[in-house]
Write a structure and sequence with these properties.
By secondary structure, the chain is an alpha/beta fold. The protein contains twelve helices and 13 strands. Strand 1 and strand 2 form a beta hairpin.
Amino acid sequence: MLLGGDLGGTKTLLALAEPVDGKLCIIRQQRYASADFADFDSLLADFLHDAPRIKAACFGLAGPTDGRSARLTYLPWQLDAGQIGRRSGIERVALANDFSAAAHGLPLVAADEFLSLHPGKPLTGAPRVILGAGTGLGVAGLVVQDGDYRVIPGEGGHFGFSPQTPEQGELWRWLQARLGRVTTEDVVSGPGLVRIHEFLGGAPCSPEAIGQMAIDAEDSPAGRALRLWQACYGAFAGDLALHWLAHGGVFLAGGIAAKLLPKAGYAPFVRAFLEKREHAGLVAEMPLTLVLAEDLGLRGALAMAAQSLA
């Protein structure tokens, strides 16, 4: 039996699975509101109260980790793989960055769970990059090594925000006065969408409410906020495509994009992705794909748990 987890600032997904005919079969899966628990140990104890013996576990989490210890960026949770193993009786426990886990989940996504935003000209074996906005902004790269993709984790969401239009410059100044250093994650995230909405004169409300208002009324502050948010997001994705020379594809994950872009349209995102001046032709060759599977990180964590036993 394997245990996988996707630990984020808003939600935590846990699942038990076992290998069946070379595939991972999920036996039980549960979603938790992360803020309902003071620490991860109490959440895990709730999930494992009647679980069978577990051979290996991997937890993807929103924050940097060395594989053995970690602290989440937006929660006061501190995790120690050794302590988790001793308390739960799990033989092997590993910690991973959440987008490292998401990258490992890509091979487990069915064809109908991908939506092409820009076809490009994909090259077999070329580098890939995956990114996604949620409570924060996750990034990971993938490069081929020994005939298979190796995942390179990172904290690219904390790059400095780079305004590309006068309006984005005004947004940067507005945020800088409130936050100091402005990161891309301050803009391209769920909280970032809320900040943009307030910058444009909208009332404080949740990212979900802004998204629905944007779909209902394109000319509302919410509609303008979503278009500006998409432009900032798409520009950053295009920058990462150039950084990695991601001819293998740029993959967009995270629940916000999967929920909003198919309904609201993604033209502002793609336009900003492609606007790369002298390298516009280069980026145009790189495929841009939306991952619709919201449990991508969980699948990847289970895959990493299985790999630890190989």
